[in-house]
Amino acid sequence: MGAEKKKKSIATKKGDKGETSLLDGTRTRKSSDRPEVYGTMDEAQAFVGVARARSDSPRVTAILLEIQNDIYMVNSELACPAESLHLLKRTIESRDVERLTRHVTAIEKELDLPPRFVLYGELETSALLDVARAVVRRAERALTRLEESETIENQNIKAFVNRLSDLLFVLARLEEREAGVPLRHPETP
User: Fold this and answer.
1) What Å distances lie between residue 59 and 6, 13, 22, 35, 171, CA to CA?
2) Residues 118, 124, 126, 128: is their CA dihedral positive or negative?
3) Which of 36, 48, 67, 177 to pair with 138, CA 20 to 30 A apart?
4) 48 to each of 45, 58, 138, 171, how far by Cα in Å?
5) Does residue 4 belong to any structural domain of this protein?
């Protein structure tokens, strides 16, 4: 019999003192800008996952699955210091940003959104997507803070995160439209 491979536990205890490892093994404080950004994107990822699980739209769920895969790629890149980016198999590229833009453009044409604010919460899945969008916006602010202290080698990440929030907004409205739920505006009782 061969030697059995020892299973790794998720409870490594290495973070008990407030530090975490980046992808290349570099240790950093959990409160530093880099873990803040990828942790916030991970939070958005969780909301996207709940929305995907609750959506009845094959089109929306397919796009949300794409988004979840993309967020893993973004987070891998954000968890990797610039000098170790060679460790990654793939990074976010302009084609990824363009794909999100195409989704946004196509959905916007279908929705014909009025230039007014909408109230969130008309439908559970759309509300979850609106929460995910708000979390992505928070990640975008954290990404901007990170860029003030460190170089972000791949500028596509910023464009991707910005476009992702746009896509989540229109997907929320698409969920409402497909369910026959009209948009509610702040001045509507």
Assistant:
1) 41, 41, 35, 32, 10
2) positive
3) 177
4) 5, 14, 15, 11
5) no
Residues sharing a CB contact under 8 Å with residue 86, sequence separation 6 or more, in sequence order: none
Is 11 a domain residue?
no
| Residue 93 domain flag | yes
DSSP 16: T
127 touches 55 (CB < 8 A): no
Q: How far apart are CA 154 and CA 64, in angstroms?
A: 23
25 CB-near residues (< 8 Å, 6+ apart)? none
Per-residue pLDDT tens over the stretch 18-60: 655 556 657 655 557 778 888 999 999 999 999 999 999 999 9
In a domain? residue 12 = no
- The token pair that represents 153 in the structure block: 């080698």
CATH number, position 140: 1.20.1200.10
pTM for the model stands at: 0.86
The range of the structural domain enclosing residue 53 comes to 29-178
